[in-house]
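User: Structure tokens for both sequences below?

Assistant:
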Amino acid sequence: MRVNIETERQDLFDTSILIGMRIHISGNVTEEGLTQAFDKAVKTHEILGMRVGLDEQNVAYYETIETTPEGSNQSEKADKSDISQNTNSNKNKIYVDNTPWKDIIKREEKKRFRIEDGEFLKAFIYELDQDGCGILFLMHHLGGDGKSLVYFIETFMNRLSAESVEASAASNEFREIRTIPAGDMSDEALKDRVGPLMILPKIYNSRWEKDEKRKTFDFSDLDAAYETYWSDKSSVIDEYVISPEMVAKILDRCKEWNIGFTAYITTSFLRWRGVKMDIGYAVDAREDGNRSMGNQATGISIKYAYNYNKTFKKNAIHVQKLMTGKLEDDGARNFILPFMAAFDNALLDALNLEHAGSYTSKTSKKLASLLGYGKKTKDLSVTNLTMLDIPQVYGSFKIDYFSFIPPVISYGRNIVGLSTLGDCTVMTLHRVKEK
């Protein structure tokens, strides 16, 4: 089976694209049980049995590959110096690695996932004792969005437990790949969906064809981009646990002011920074509530500067008003998907390579600056997964800690991740700095 990569094409050549989640499981777990649960969970989600290809027209696509034979063991002791260079790199695997989780992320994000071989997901058991374990999941964004990884973890936990009829049924449900197609990309349709800005793709596609003769890239170009980008950079992750008492206070204020938790957190950052900020928000686009893996997110953005002549409440209400205006406008909410899909595929690749510093051209440099892939990226990007719609308890096991670390995408600078499971609310701040 083949599924074209359309609205998520801009993620293909991004050099900082790993979604991270770490959990702690309380209960008597074993390495063997964790390995078997992971292997079975992988087989449940269709996208994890696929690979990414590029055809002669430079169209990227997912295609089905042979699945791992039953009974194979995917758990391997991690070679800390080069864990991803295993000869079976076309498998999604779980490893045992006693390295601190932040160091694992710093090491792994510098290595390109071999998505052309079907490598979308890695998990690392970084703590394991009689009371439970800590596991870090790292997923390439083409494996799915944040909710996709949440639903994989749910599948994994159901497989680990399988102590009830409900858990067994949920575990055995095969989940097909789900993405958001670009839809009708004719001039007339784009004018309706994108508006006057539809002229930008037309102009820059024409320039790209004229100046670069429609140059195309392959995975060797992406290898070079990784080497260039990460040669002088390192990831910085700050993690903050928000106490249940503080969450309750914030939610009381949000209810009183008729705003959302995300608007409150955004306003806090605005007050702290004291400058006008360009802020992006990831938005769930799963209209049918499916629990399949695949990139099913869209996004909106606002620009605002904290007004110190007004109260925090009034600032927060204004931030919410700006967000709501975008969220309730279908055109604004879904604008970014057809807009980005309208650009030539190779030009989208070139934007990421420009950001990585491994390629430049007159056309891609101008467009990168215009779209925020150059030095002027989004000041802040926020993804709030809110209260996770998965159980906390699975038979005799419980997820007693959950943290979400979004990727520092090419068009973002400071990336905030928020998630709540039970009474555990965690906020992370992820950025990339030069050494």
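Moving on to the next sequence.
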Amino acid sequence: MTHVDDRRLLAPPSAALYDYHERALQPGTRHEPATISSEAAKTTRLLSTIERATARITLRPPVEGAGLLREAVARLRVYEARGVLDRMSVHTVARNLHAVFFTGHPFGLIHAARGWHLLEELDRRDLIEVWLDTPCSGTTRKWLRVRLCDRLDELRFWESGN
């Protein structure tokens, strides 16, 4: 925090994104390709409204590298620097990521499937943690706290007919 006239000011929120781009442009930086397929993203539409509403994002320590996934984490760090990540719904975050990286068309933003799939990939690679509440099997009164990637793996298993 910087101090100006006995006031505490937050760090500029663009610093996280600026730092990412500075590191990405350095020679020898490893750029990881990432594929976010529309087919895999369709499963995210099977998440219930309760699961979407209870989802929360926790950022992990920064890691080196560049690419789509690393830039997405840098953008989440901007939200955290602004102090709004804890108050934003994960669906809003997914919509923002979907608009930035894929398309801002209103029909695509209704479900923001690719944005949710991007969050799943970040969760799967332990760049962030996305936790949500899902109903316990056999009862509607008990809920389990699970990671987003684990829940989507379960939904894909049931969708495949097994």
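User: Anything stand out in the second?

Assistant: The longest strand covers residues 128-135.
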